[in-house]
Amino acid sequence: MYGPGTIIAFLVGGFFLILWVDVDSVDTSTITIDDTDPRWVGAWWIGLLIGSFMFIASSIPFLCFPKKLPISSSEQHKDSSNVQNTEMTLAGEVVAMKEKGKSLGKSILAVCSTPPFIFVALANVTISALTAAIGSFTPKFFETQFGLTAADASILTGLIPLPAYGIGIVIGGYLVKRFELKAQGIALLSLLLSICATAFALITMFLGCSPNKLIGVTHDLQLNELDGVSLTWECNANCSCTENQYKPICLEERNYFSPCHAGCINEYSNMTYSNCGCGSSSQSNLATEGYCDNECNTLIPFSFILFLLVISVAAQEMPQLMLTFRSVPKEHKSLALGIRYILIGGLGIIPAPIVYGLLIDLTCLSWNEVCGERGACWVYDVELYRYYYIGLSVFILVLDCLFCFLCWLTIKRNGAKGEIEDTVCLTPSADNAAYIGEQI
Fold this sequence. Notes:
Helix content: 55-70%
Largest sheet: 6 strands, mixed
Distance between the termini: 7 Å
Number of helices: 14
Order of helices and strands: HHHHHHHHEEEEEEHHHHEEHH
């Protein structure tokens, strides 16, 4: 899921985001903004073209396969000896398929009525939901919390959480094999890892930068907090400013929504402004584009804790996969894996980004409006964004702890009754080989 290909994609994608979106048709020397400007749109489509070409190129070798793969002479002899019984075999297969169809419902009910399997599957749902959120919103989190550009945020995502995910999967499998853990021990390991992940998530909630004070959005001219957006003041009342022109500037250590909202009259080619009515006449009254410098030293500690958090989350993948196969009878393992995938997709990977996105939208202070319709968010409440985003992650991890504990408890009780397969085997079977290869 998050292997070398994904890491390379984020790193290369970060480079393309430095380029202007219409780099192929526009003279970029005429662009007066750079990638630090919130209005900047990077060349996101180049990565899509490269990815599409690679998909097509990788599919070409499959066209070279013959209609029928060659078989050994012994297999040919066996195949010819079975030709006479083809009709009988087909009839038997039809009958067998009917019987299997009748028993499918009973098999599903048997798997879903196994408490250890249900709890470990729900635990994996929480992990998958959090993983989907990390992959989708980590770049945006870096942008809003630490003032990084889209390119830098993408590169940082490719260097921190994605490698940590791969390392975590390897560590999880190694711990199970190194200590020769049985079912109860594996469940306890998942519980301890989930507790560690929750603790790391709680720490990251307090590792953020102080929000920029934006006049008219978060504070008034006297730096008092505002309850709502109020961009019109006496110093810019005659400027006829629009809220759809978001171009933050720094004037006398204060941030304004745009040069117009700062009452600036003169604009220079070096992206500076002067004669700003909202400034103090006792100072130089020179404004510069972008936010004022906001010293923040929490990016490195946040990145380190995030690295440990992702490792703790990913390290649960292999132990929980082992528990999935240990908690059901041998004949139901393939079915259990299918049900597990359905739960992960339906309850984790698909809805998680939607819920996170809706929650993040609640922290927006100022929206861009185009033709009366709401567009992108100009300004977020940085602290509320962090509390909502990480708070939801902590809630998901608490559920993970709960499900891991219930799984461990049911295995402990059922293991005493001899109802749990209490062996350890990390050799991939036909059922789980594809899954393990995908994860690593």
